[in-house]
Amino acid sequence: MALRIENVTKRFGKKIAVDQLSMLVEPGEMFGMLGANGAGKTTTFRMMIGLFEPNDGEVTWDGQAPQSLSARTIGYLPEERGLYPKLKVMEQMIYLGRLRGLSKKEVMAEVNMWLERFNIPHYRKAKVENLSKGNQQKVQFIAAVLHRPDLLILDEPFSGLDPINVDLLKTAVKELRDGGTTIVFSSHDMEHVESLCENLCIMDEGTPVVHGKLKDIKRTYEKRKLHVRADFPIDFLEHIDGVLDMTVGAQETTIDIRDEGVAEAIFASLQDQGGYVRHFSVEEPTLHDIFVEKVGRSYV
Amino acid sequence: MYKMLIVLAHTYWTKVKSKTFMFTTLMMAFFMVLFLNLDNIIEFFDGDASEQVYDVLILDESGDLYEPLAAEIEGGDAQIMTNEASQADEEDAEAAVMEGPYDAYLQVAGEDEDIEGHFYAPTVNETFLPSQLESGLQNVRETRVADDLDIDEEDLAALDESVAFQQSALDDTARSEAELNQARLFVNILLFIIYFSVLFLGNMIASEVATEKSSRVMELLISSASPVQQMFGKIFGVGLIGLTQYSLIFLIALVSFAQFVDVEAEADEMLGEQQDMFALGEPVFSLELFLYAFLFFILGYLLYATLAAMLGSIVTRIEDVGQAVGPMNMLVILAFMISIFSMGNPASPIVTITSYIPFFTPMIMFLRVGMGEATVWEVLLAVGVMVVTIVLLTLIAARVYRGGVLLYNHARTWKSLKQALLLARKNG
């Protein structure tokens, strides 16, 4: 029951949206897709749900093409709102749920449970267009999970939500994963990915630039950022072997170093100066740093 | 199949429960009732011309015309009072009409075959009174001329009698007079139903699809039901909505008709020109024609509905629906025009040719069938062409639907159509 993407290429006319993408999502894991707008995330998702067929390569879940899976297998939360604005929440859910193969009763039980969880049971009979963006997103999420899919695909689930709602959704997503659902999601926000995923893939212009376990990716990335505040000039640090770049700010000097060993050397030479060092810290690499390093430009 | 039924039921119920549906149905029913009772209403305000009492002044210049003319006019069915005016006093007569109690004055002059009349009234846009006076004068003239020629009344009556004349068609497929009248009624009804269905329901389908697209529910739906299931769910759902609306309107009209009007007496009038059918005494109901009408209605609906679904899926905003379905509306209006103008001449080449063009077939081929101008194989051929077109259109529409729903740009219609097809092909 793994999601397997093998050498998948998708072209629209001359434009290549996804180029030779391969990845494997193990059952029960949470997989993050990162990338700027137009990187190919949504196209990849649409191939996963069978909306597009790849020009080359194969997308399979449990060995089967998405088109031949039952409607209950996959849950999908599209990037933009995909609900009938004029319909009431419950009506809408019943329609979508029945198309997925559920009975009206099953849908109502499930949806009531979720509405309670998201603290919006009173919106059962509200029209979707009258809901706030955050609440619409909650309803959209319910539409994606009400049939308890094995594979849940969330395209930018947290965009445009306030921190409280982000936490609410994150908790729900984690619980689903703990319950055995395989989840693939995308985000602009590196932090969300860092806090949720074991495995991830960063895409740029249709190709994966970074791919693998978050821990491994961070481990293999040796560069660090060093923040130093001292009461004396520290320009001489520039000449230490392993210092790649130095930015002197009003308060603080930021030093890019080749690896953590260089930090030790810098620490020692600062001690030799005998002056007072108020702040010395080594920053863990962020996904953003890794992205910049791999792609050669800033992410957002 | 089951999913198509869910889409169908959903489309149907959400529309039928909506206030818009209630409102339009009631409006249409209201106009229907109004239309059926139109002559009662006019009469209520105005009164029937033939039941009014008229006062007419007659200015007799010959001196001996007044007596017989007055006798003719007052002896007729209409309630017309005549008064003789003093000779050659036109001004007085005019004043009596304009300011006095008279409705009009008639100036008569001449002897025997030279008798002539001139009708004066404040306005001459009403036809009832002058025609009554004219026929009265005509009778007087006839009597005078007959007297001169020594023809007695019996001979005169014999002269006037019209000849017995009947029509029979020799061609086997041709219709009898009664059948033709019924066919004309059927053709008229079907023309209107197809015309309104395409205009209303076609637009409804197109905007349904466009709504689905602009709300982006498509992306959710498409992973649980195929585009073809969705499209036909919508098409049949909207078709049922149309049928519901027609039946409701028909029912409301029938109830009000039965309640307010003496049914039998009014039936002829209501049908206006179609009354001949009843007047012939043996109203024929042709099951065959009815079935043809049903067949062509279904085919026509399917054809235009698929076209509408296709057009709806290439626009992004609901505001653009009108523009996209414009050409389709033109097609149905054109078909309507051709049929209306060819009703009296169903054998003309333009009718024959256009009856094979699928978009025109449901109306024009039915006109030919109704008028007995089409042989069975011709009908089968046209139906075959239509079915093939519907299948082709369905295939194309399903592709455009699939590709089109993923197309969110604001390009012009034809460009969108091309892109949608391209997207669908790349996909397939």
From TrEMBL, chain A:
Name the UniProt key words of this record, in alphabetical order: ATP-binding, Nucleotide-binding, Transport
Q: Which residues form the ABC transporter domain?
A: 3-230
Record Pfam families: ABC_tran, DrrA1-3_C
Give a yes or no for keyword Nucleotidyltransferase in this entry.
Answer: no
Q: Where are the transmembrane segments?
A: none
**UniProt-recorded Gene Ontology molecular function terms:** ATP binding; ATP hydrolysis activity
Which Gene3D superfamilies does UniProt cross-reference here?
A: P-loop containing nucleotide triphosphate hydrolases (3.40.50.300)
Which InterPro entries does this one have? AAA+_ATPase (IPR003593), ABC_transporter-like_ATP-bd (IPR003439), ABC_transporter-like_CS (IPR017871), ABC_transporter_ATP-binding (IPR050763), DrrA1/2-like_C (IPR025302), P-loop_NTPase (IPR027417)
Which family does the record assign? Belongs to the ABC transporter superfamily.
State the PANTHER family in the record: ABC TRANSPORTER ATP-BINDING PROTEIN, ABC TRANSPORTER ATP-BINDING PROTEIN NATA
Q: What is this protein called?
A: ABC-2 type transport system ATP-binding protein
Q: Which species is this record about?
A: Natribacillus halophilus
TrEMBL record, chain B:
Output the Gene Ontology cellular-component terms.
plasma membrane
Subcellular localization, as worded in the UniProt entry: Cell membrane
Which molecular-function annotation in GO is an example for this chain? Answer: ABC-type transporter activity
Q: Extract the InterPro entries matched here.
A: ABC-2_transporter_component, ABC2_TM
Membrane topology term reads:
Multi-pass membrane protein
The domain of life is Bacteria
Q: Which UniProt keywords apply?
A: Cell membrane, Membrane, Transmembrane, Transmembrane helix
ABC-2 type transporter transmembrane domain location is: 19-398
Which spans of this chain does the record mark as coiled coil? none
- The answer on whether this UniProt entry bears the keyword Cell membrane reads yes
Q: Which residues cross the membrane?
A: 21-38, 185-206, 235-261, 289-312, 324-344, 350-367, 379-401
PANTHER family registered for this protein in UniProt: MEMBRANE COMPONENT OF ABC TRANSPORTER YHHJ-RELATED, MULTIDRUG ABC TRANSPORTER PERMEASE YBHS-RELATED
What name does the UniProt record give this protein? ABC-2 type transport system permease protein
To which species is this protein native? Natribacillus halophilus
